[in-house]
Specification:
Number of helices: 14
CATH architecture of the largest domain: Orthogonal Bundle
CATH class of the largest domain: Mainly Alpha
Oligomer: single chain
Number of strands: 0
Largest sheet: none
Strand content: under 5%
CATH topology of the largest domain: MetI-like fold
Number of domains: 2
Radius of gyration: 26 Å
CATH superfamily of the largest domain: MetI-like
Amino acid sequence: MADVSSSASNSEGALIVDPERSRRTRNSWEGIVRIVVGVPLLVVQLNVLFDRVAWLQVIVTLMGFYAIVTGLGLLIKGVFGSHIDPATWLSVAWMAILLVFVFMQLAGLFDDLTSDFKNLEQPPELSTHEPLGTDRVGKSVMAQAIQGARVSLIVGIGAVGIGLVLGSIVGLVAGYFRGPIEGTFNILTDSILAYPALILLFTIVAIFGGSVLVVTLALSMLSIPTMARLARANTLTFAAREFVTAARAMGASNSRILFREIMPNVALPLASYAVIIVAVVIVAEASLSFLGVGIDPISTPTWGNMISEGRQQTVLQDAPHIVFVPGVLMFLTVLSLNRIGESLRTIWDPREAKL
């Protein structure tokens, strides 16, 4: 009887399956299947449907991207487990790939913007030296898109960096000292935010020109009050905490309390929010270029300048890749930055992330 019971228990144990392992296996196979389906869809769109109806191209392309992105997400969960957030890691991977191409362009690759009038509006073809095609004057769409990525990152990081440094200092001082300083701060920030941002940017660019430096400084003027108000709000919270009261009782100076006690606690929420603001600034820069008042398109290609060519109906009909390529790159970049910023807020400020 003992042998029978032991064999029965062994057979029951053999039937027990680890649910996490089976879930990871299922996710892995489903992810592989979606990737295998999505890649051919994009290849068909690039090589077969390029000269067909525009709406059919859009549908096939979106289906291909959706299958590949969701497939990669399931594959990541299958390999590393369900506790991993695939959206965040895919966003980090995309930004890393984009930075690699930007550094390659800075090293001299993808730097050729000469016109090839023998290959005007050449469609994307992976087997050629122009895998993303050419524009209306024969310039490489891939080279322009990579240089546009460089400009967008420089403008976004530069403008938000200036706003983060200046806004943090102003917000810390206003939130800590209160009184007339805080009142003056509120009046200035409310005045800047109340002024139409688009008109302000138009005015600055019209007066000083459309260089990368001017556009960066103009956009930083819009990020300074936003970062300053966020720094002030966080400073008001931490200024009433016990460790600040203890530091003041021990005779610490105001500067030490501000920069040694309060700033380290304010810096992390500001940094996570700054990543999201970088995405907003990239869209703002592209909008200015699209409207024709941004960076000079002749000397510096940008995503907005490339997308603005789509205002001509013939471009969308004959060569939609000229608009589609920078549009997809900007969409993926902005989406990735937003996702990374939200993840950082979850890590560095859990209470804020639950709101």
